[in-house]
Amino acid sequence: MNRPLADPRPRIPFAYRTDEREAIQQMARDFAMREVLPVANELDPKHGLIPDSLRTKMADLGFFGVLIPEEHGGLGLGVFEYALITEELARAWMSVASIITRSGVASALDPTQRAEILPRAARGEWLGAFAMSEPGAGSDIASIRTRADKVEGGWVINGQKMWCTFADQSDGIIVVARTEPYDPENRHKGVRRFIAYKNRGEFPKGCTGTAVRKIGYHGWHTFELSFDDCFVPDDALLGHEQDPKSPDQGFKRVATGMLTPRVHTAARSIGLARGALEDSIKYVQEREQFGHSIGDFQATRFKIAKMATEIETCRALMYEVAADIDGGEASDMRAAMVKYAAAEMSERVTSEALQIHGGAGYTTDFPIERYWRDARLTKIFEGTSEIMQRLVSDRLLPPTPFR
Ligand SMILES: Cc1cc2nc3c(=O)[nH]c(=O)nc-3n(C[C@H](O)[C@H](O)[C@H](O)COP(=O)(O)OP(=O)(O)OC[C@H]3O[C@@H](n4cnc5c(N)ncnc54)[C@H](O)[C@@H]3O)c2cc1C
User: Is 369 a known active-site residue?
Assistant: First the structure.
């Protein structure tokens, strides 16, 4: 007697399962497959933007307010639920799973601005961008050179930023800049964050942008930004109210704010890999060679087994790390581990899925090549795989000058 086939889509493990979580996962899954996947398959090959109509539907379901407290109009859920939703959206289109983070930019604002902007962010009416990386400062964020100089009533920002995703369509950009000259002996000193408010479809006054020609992560644009005497008022300096005397708190806040983004990136990686697995399971049963479906060949079956096992392994760690963050037991080492493991896994699995599809995988007629291109990025942004390994090894070994 044949046993029924297993579903490659995740079921929340018993220890974490609640009716609410199952309902959230199902809702995100239905939405992703019905509303997101067809749009992604149509728009990604022509580098189209995520349509406003799709963003409105996402806002109606509360996707922009998952982590925003209920008193500010959000759903007030945890990182666990955030990861569940992200995996489902990324299974359809990574860029859509990414755009939900843009409301979170408002959480970095000072309390007065937060109170005003968070409810709008929860409704998707205020979305932000983040300008930290520079042409000469990527992994080494303490080496940024963009300057913010004090003037009457505010600050003037000058410098080059690189890779600012969503700079054009956002309502505000958090710009990481130095308020004191670069000091090689104390590189974190004077690294601060500023909010530059702007109109959608424009850059802040005193800022120009050039779109980067990227190979994936379509649906929105990523920019190189040039700040030339860009004025922001005094209250644009973030964290000032909490501790005006601590000039390196901007750096600390950037560094400590990376835990949830790393789980989010793990969820994006897992979603992409799952999309590749689901599509491969379907394809190997349809495609015939040598008089058999290619799914009859053990070489193919073992590939499917390996892909599914790798995905499950990373997802199990992601659930654990997310639950620990929600439970107040966050570990930067384990957050780095899951980001690293999931990103590497995602590239391997999506590449194997492309191989399983043969020549068809190398066309834009199947979404496999998109999963593969997007998975490739997860090893680079939110901290490269090498930087994740550095974070982990620095917690397990004594420091060395050759890091
Ligand atoms: C599509 C896209 C969107 C992005 N969006 C944003 C955004 O919205 N905002 C933003 O601020 N940034 C964004 N980024 C930037 C991203 O975070 C950086 O690309 C990333 O941090 C790596 O920096 P880098 O590209 O300068 O590479 P580099 O830091 O120059 O690294 C190059 C290589 O050297 C390795 N390396 C560097 N240092 C070490 C070390 N100490 N030990 C071992 N290996 C090392 C790296 O791992 C990598 O393999 C985006 C990037 C991309 C590609």
Answer: no
